[in-house]
Amino acid sequence: MAILKHFVALDIFLGMGAFRIYDAADLDNNDIGDACVNSLSADIACNTYIRSFMRLGYRGSLENVTLTDVIRAGTCPGRLRRWFKTVSKDCAGKSLGSSGTVPQQYGGYIWAGWN
């Protein structure tokens, strides 16, 4: 079990970097404008583990101090906030697809899961 925890910690450290919620090419069929597309497809410079927070669900303790420290460290909170605010501004009044999804929905899920 201890070895597994070390592998998980190593994987989390290697997950540092950035990720995107949307790829610009996937947004081509939406009439949302270039500014909105650019905002939605911007890199979010946070540990890639938090991308899993796009799925709704209860987020209890991670039960791993190293993982918690890595996720909460650095500039991630500001990066998430900036992405959400920029998308909210650049995509105001717009929706995605026929379902009418709010553009900042998945970023909002990540933000809620991170908090």
UniProtKB/TrEMBL annotation:
Keyword list, A-Z: Signal
Stated name of the protein: Uncharacterized protein
Top-level taxon: Eukaryota
Signal peptide start and end residues: 1-18
Key word Signal present: yes
